[in-house]
């Protein structure tokens, strides 16, 4: 109506001129048409409603009801019969009789009955409702049944009731609805389209919720809405309410297929849509099934089941058509179409109505009469199978038994559990909330596990909340009307004045056996029930057996579902566990039963739908693992923790389960798809709800986990959710939006709050949250929700990476509003063997053996280097190396290489003075003495000469990718990795001499972070990171200096960081080794290769352990190439006891660190520059002969030198061996 009445005066004119045929009329299709200003609005008015209105007019407004007899197929057996309700001489009864006639006279002005009027504040309307309430307070239970249509079969057995639009309670509700539309459209200037969208969910469900039974029989309970103006009610003990509702719907439509759609059960239609979604999920998760058997229990005329199958089929085939092409299949797509085998199991086999919708659809096709809606045409199609076989798309049959005995893929169970009405003390029951000023009546449902699992459904007896904005009397009158009716129900059931009628739904032993049997026969069981909920399957504390036996999914209560709950459950857990095991194995994690159970329990606690999605393919399972681990961490989190948010003080709402929570009413499914994964809800200490959006990601590798793409994606989804939230629920919304949308929000949040209480939420937190949600529902328009921008920790992202082994997450965002944390799967691993500092008795490496070879690479490895443990070399005794002969006596001058003394030698000399020749002679004699030289060669000539001297018995090592991981830790303390970080930083300083302290500091922090990612802390050790991990971190950090990346990228181009392990250590072989640095022409790579090979030797000697003799000699020619390498003096100080001798040679003294001269006791000085001669003289000459030896050194002949060692007071001049 608001679409055709642009101004307030237009609306009031239409409301007051109901008798004007120029405004109101009825077309041939049964629609009442309202014309105004060249525009048209219309509403379907079934013939039955119009006939009953005329019947009442003919009865002059007499107080009464109607009775209609129907045949077994639902067709009428004569006209409706008017049944007067006796009105005595009581003043209240007389007052209502007069008000009834006045209301009838006002209504009769319209030729088209109660659907052609607008209720505002007309006096006949107000008097009619007030008089009815006053009469009900003193009259008998039958008085509440006025303006209902009782439906019976030919034998007099009662089916149910249709509550007509003229019932006083329906009139009171319709008046409140019409005036609410009037207020917001014309007084608050809300656009007409927005008003329509926001109020579309108000259907008048549960008005009335119960009515007294006739002749002392069972009371009637709300079953569904028949269109917008009538309500279907069934006896409380009706074994198959769907069948009764289908019969009442067909009766109201008078058998007309067009009318049938207009007065179809409103809630049943919405339930069919949601059922279709569950069926689509099953078909998507099991694509190999192309002929699906379905059991439908208590399905009525089968219309809900058939429509649900059609919805699911349409959704799946649309997705398949978009994602596949016929060329990809050996069979044509026609042969891949789904077909269904539907078996119907009515509660009463004698009811012919079962399956009538299907037979009527087929009959319309055969006769050619009638219209088959587009959504039902698939029922009449066929599919082809190989071999030319043609099958119907839907093959259906009706069974005589109530419970199936054969197996099936799916079971659709409607109202499987029976209910009864009892009277309970009203003061012990919840008062409830007044939602949308009382126009949305939501019963309170509570679950009790003992002594028999049961649900208690209570219609609020004294709800509190915002009253109607036009007049609070409208809300108070509406509440008083339905509470008075419910007291009549209680009175009929023998209840006392202080009692209140409630619905009790139990799971007795027989029904439990039926549920167990259904799950045994079917993969999935989808239950649609008015009075039972998910709690029976989802109570790990009170009912652990069904909780452990089933995976469950439940759609929260929604406006379009009334009080209906749709539950999907399955006991087929083996497939889920198998997929979990495969996923964990791919992640490199333990797939133990304990780990699988932890993940499955965590997902079930979060959302059953998420657990069911584990059966999907692709990355979904890994993402579910990430969500499960976040939930697990939050369960054990402390309040106000830095990283994790506590599930003992708040709860999660999985937004993928309820996408409508971030969709405006009327939005199409799929809109606003960019949203967070979770919404965290808690209460501030001083009161008020607090909200946090949480986004969870999974990335397999560390280098992608920290990438800008991941961080941007997290921030965008969180920001989109926050903006959508403010648009829907923020303080800037209109009062109507607050009233309707916040009531919907409160209902969804209460559903997940109860779920959290069954799992992890503390009772104190539950009470505080429940109180706040009650306030939100009661005072929705006035409740102050803090803007998201002011919420503490409004946006949080978590990224799971299996390569991150640290126990403590690390923050990886770039200082944005969305804090993002990287965490690993430590919850799935056994606790570390030691969590404190290592003690002296720990003799093995801090790196677990299985971690040593963890990092793999496809880069070629020809270097034969390794970071493996090696066995000690057998002792070969001491060695006396002849360097030359004394020039004065011609006696041989020897350098003693012994582990008992200082076995190191330093050689300095200008080019061409004989350094290379001396080194070759030293290597020859070392080899003869059983000491293997490891020579770092920068020129080919030394390779050739050594090869000649050693007769080819030498092993060459050149660069083809590192054969070891430089990040291997060899210390015995958890802080040993810090030592390694410092060493690597110094190595990079040698490789990149142009980098400053700040840039090297960046490299150091990245190295340190790579260890932290693997679990290294000050008190515990972790795994060994891949060598490329620090490079990935630097690449992923937008703050990294470009010069640093340019230098590192040059090495990365050679595959330098793709380090592998598994090759033998150089200390493991007794053969001489030539490390051919010159094999690569890139000077940068030469420095890097030499430096890291030396570092590997340093680590390997620690892993090998102390030795009894010298086994190897590290010969470092051209030491000026490592002039800034602090590892050389460190190695000189430490390597002796590990069986290593160090020989370093260079052209100038300045090429060496000053500290190396204190670590070496033997020196050979060839001719040098004057400055170097002075420095050498100060090292080995007596103080009174410094000038003398300075002159001698700088004047030394070619192939001559000055040798100083332990025990010599003054240096000896020698002639080197030729």
Task: Provide a quick synopsis of the model.
This protein has 34 helices and 40 strands. The chain is of the alpha/beta class.
Percent of residues in beta strands? Answer: 15-25%
Q: How many helices? A: 34
- Rg from alpha-carbon coordinates: 43 Å
Q: Calculate the mean pLDDT score and round it.
A: 83
So what's the overall shape? Answer: elongated
Please give the alpha-carbon distance between the first and last residues: 115 Å
Low-confidence stretches: 325-332, 559-563, 831-875
Report the structural category: alpha/beta
Task: Please give the order of strands in the largest beta sheet.
Answer: 31-30-40-39-38-32-37-36-33-35-34
Total of domains: 5
Q: Tell me the helix content.
A: 25-40%
Major sheet details: 11 strands, mixed
**Number of β-strand runs:** 40
């Amino acid at each position: 109506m608001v679409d055709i009445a642009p101004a307030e005066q237009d609306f009031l004119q239409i409301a007051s001129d109901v008798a004007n045929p120029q405004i109101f009329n009825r077309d041939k299709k049964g629609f009442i048409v309202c014309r105004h200003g060249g525009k048209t609005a219309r509403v379907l008015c079934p013939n039955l409603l119009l006939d009953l209105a005329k019947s009442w007019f003919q009865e002059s407004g007499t107080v009464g009801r109607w009775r209609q007899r129907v045949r077994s197929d639902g067709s009428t057996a004569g006209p409706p019969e008017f049944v007067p309700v006796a009105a005595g001489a009581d003043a209240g009864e007389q007052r209502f009789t007069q008000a009834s006639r006045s209301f009838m006279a006002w209504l009769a002005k319209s030729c088209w009955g109660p659907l052609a009027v607008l209720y505002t504040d007309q006096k006949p309307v107000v008097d009619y409702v007030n008089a009815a309430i006053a009469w009900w307070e003193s009259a008998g239970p039958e008085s509440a049944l006025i303006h209902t249509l009782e439906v019976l079969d030919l034998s007099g057995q009662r089916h149910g009731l249709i509550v007509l639009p003229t019932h006083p309670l329906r009139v009171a509700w319709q008046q409140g609805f019409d005036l609410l539309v009037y207020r917001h459209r014309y007084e608050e200037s809300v656009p007409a389209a927005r008003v329509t969208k926001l109020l579309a969910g108000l259907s008048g469900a549960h008005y009335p919720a119960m009515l007294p039974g006739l002749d002392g029989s069972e009371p009637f309970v709300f079953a569904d809405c028949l269109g917008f103006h009538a309500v279907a009610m069934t006896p409380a003990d009706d074994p198959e309410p769907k069948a009764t509702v289908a019969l009442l719907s067909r009766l109201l439509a008078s058998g007309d297929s067009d009318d049938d759609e207009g007065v179809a059960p409103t809630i049943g239609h919405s339930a069919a849509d949601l059922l279709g979604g569950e069926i689509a999920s099953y078909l998507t998760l099991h694509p190999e099934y192309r002929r699906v058997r379905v059991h439908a229990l208590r399905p009525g005329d089968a219309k809900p089941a058939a429509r649900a199958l059609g919805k699911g089929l349409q959704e799946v085939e649309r997705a398949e058509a978009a994602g596949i092409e016929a060329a990809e299949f050996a069979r044509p797509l026609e042969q891949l179409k789904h077909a269904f085998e539907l078996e119907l199991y009515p509660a009463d086999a004698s009811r012919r109505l079962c399956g009538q919708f299907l037979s009527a659809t087929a009959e319309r096709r055969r006769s050619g009469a009638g219209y088959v809606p587009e959504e039902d045409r698939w029922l009449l199609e066929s599919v082809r199978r190989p071999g030319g076989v043609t099958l119907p798309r839907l093959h259906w049959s009706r069974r005589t038994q109530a419970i199936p005995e054969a197996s099936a893929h799916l079971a659709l169970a409607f109202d499987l559990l029976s209910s009864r009405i009892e009277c309970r003390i009203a003061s012990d029951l919840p008062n409830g909330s007044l939602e949308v000023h009382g126009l949305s009546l939501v019963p309170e449902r509570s679950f009790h596990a003992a002594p028999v699992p049961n649900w208690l459904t209570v219609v609020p007896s004294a709800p509190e909340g915002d009253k109607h904005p036009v007049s609070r009397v409208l809300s108070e009158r509406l509440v008083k009307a339905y509470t008075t009716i419910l007291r009549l129900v209680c009175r009929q059931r023998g209840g006392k004045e202080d009692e209140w009628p409630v619905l009790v739904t139990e799971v007795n032993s027989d029904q439990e056996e039926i549920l167990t049997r259904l799950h045994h026969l079917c993969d999935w069981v989808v239950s649609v029930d008015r009075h039972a909920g998910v709690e029976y399957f989802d109570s790990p504390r009170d009912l652990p057996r069904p909780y452990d036996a089933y995976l469950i999914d439940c759609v929260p209560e929604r406006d379009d579902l009334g009080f209906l709950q749709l539950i999907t459950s399955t006991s087929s857990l083996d497939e889920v566990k198998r997929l979990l095991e495969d996923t964990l194995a791919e992640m490199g994690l333990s797939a133990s039963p304990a780990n699988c159970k932890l993940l499955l329990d965590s997902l079930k606690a979060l959302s059953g739908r998420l657990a069911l999605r584990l059966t999907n393919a692709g990355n979904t399972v890994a993402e579910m693992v990430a969500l499960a681990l976040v939930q697990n961490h939050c369960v054990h989190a402390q309040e106000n923790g830095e990283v994790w948010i506590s599930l003992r003080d708040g709860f999660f709402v999985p937004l993928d389960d309820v996408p409508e929570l971030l969709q405006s009413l009327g939005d199409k499914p799929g809109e606003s798809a960019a949203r967070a994964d979770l919404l965290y809800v808690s209460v501030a200490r001083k009161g008020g709800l607090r909200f946090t959006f949480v986004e969870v990601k999974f990335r397999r590798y560390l280098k992608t986990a920290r990438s800008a793409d991941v961080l941007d994606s997290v921030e965008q989804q969180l920001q989109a959710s926050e903006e959508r939230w403010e648009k829907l629920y923020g303080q800037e919304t209109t009062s109507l939006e607050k009233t309707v949308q916040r009531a919907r929000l409160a209902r969804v949040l209460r559903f997940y709050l109860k779920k959290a209480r069954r799992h992890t939420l503390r009772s104190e937190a539950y009470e505080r949250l429940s109180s706040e949600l009650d306030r939100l529902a009661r005072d929705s328009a006035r409740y102050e929700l803090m803007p998201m921008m002011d919420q503490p920790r409004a946006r949080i992202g978590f990224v799971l990476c299996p390569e991150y082994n640290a126990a403590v997450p690390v923050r990886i965002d770039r200082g944005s509003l969305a804090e993002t944390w990287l965490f690993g799967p430590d919850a799935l691993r056994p606790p570390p063997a030691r969590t404190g500092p290592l003690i002296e008795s720990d003799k093995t490496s801090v790196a677990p053996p299985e971690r040593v070879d963890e990092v793999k690479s496809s880069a070629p490895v020809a270097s034969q280097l390794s970071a493996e443990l090696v066995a000690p070399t057998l002792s070969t005794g001491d060695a006396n190396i002849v360097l030359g002969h004394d020039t004065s006596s011609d006696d041989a001058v020897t350098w003693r290489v012994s582990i008992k003394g200082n076995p190191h030698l330093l050689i300095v000399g200008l080019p061409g003075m004989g350094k290379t020749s001396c080194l070759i002679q030293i290597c020859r004699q070392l080899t003869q003495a059983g000491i293997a030289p490891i020579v770092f060669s920068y020129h080919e000539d030394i390779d050739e000469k050594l090869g000649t001297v050693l007769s080819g018995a030498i092993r060459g090592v050149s660069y083809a990718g590192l054969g070891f991981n430089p990040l291997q830790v060899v210390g015995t303390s958890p802080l040993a990795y810090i030592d390694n970080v410092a060493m690597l930083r110094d190595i990079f300083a040698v490789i990149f001499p142009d980098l400053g302290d700040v840039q090297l500091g960046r490299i150091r922090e990245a190295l340190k972070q790579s260890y932290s990612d693997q679990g290294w802390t000050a008190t515990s050790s972790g795994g060994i990171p891949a060598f490329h991990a620090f490079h990935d971190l630097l690449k992923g950090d937008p703050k990294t200096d470009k010069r640093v990346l340019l230098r590192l990228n040059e090495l990365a181009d050679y595959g330098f960081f793709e380090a592998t392990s598994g090759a033998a250590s150089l200390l493991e072989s007794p053969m001489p080794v030539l490390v051919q640095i010159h094999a690569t022409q890139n000077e940068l790579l030469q420095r890097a290769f030499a430096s890291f090979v030396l570092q590997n030797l340093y680590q390997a000697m620690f892993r090998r352990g102390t030795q009894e003799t010298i086994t190897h000699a590290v010969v470092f020619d051209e030491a000026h190439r490592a002039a800034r390498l602090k590892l050389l003096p460190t190695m000189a100080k430490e390597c002796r006891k590990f069986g290593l001798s160090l020989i370093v040679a260079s052209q100038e003294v300045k090429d060496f660190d000053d500290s190396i001269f204190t670590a070496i006791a033997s020196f050979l000085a060839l001719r040098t520059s004057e400055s170097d001669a002075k420095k050498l003289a100060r090292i080995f000459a007596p103080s009174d002969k410094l000038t003398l030896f300075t002159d001698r050194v700088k004047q030394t002949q070619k192939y001559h030198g000055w040798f100083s060692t332990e025990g010599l007071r003054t240096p000896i001049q020698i002639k080197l061996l030729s």
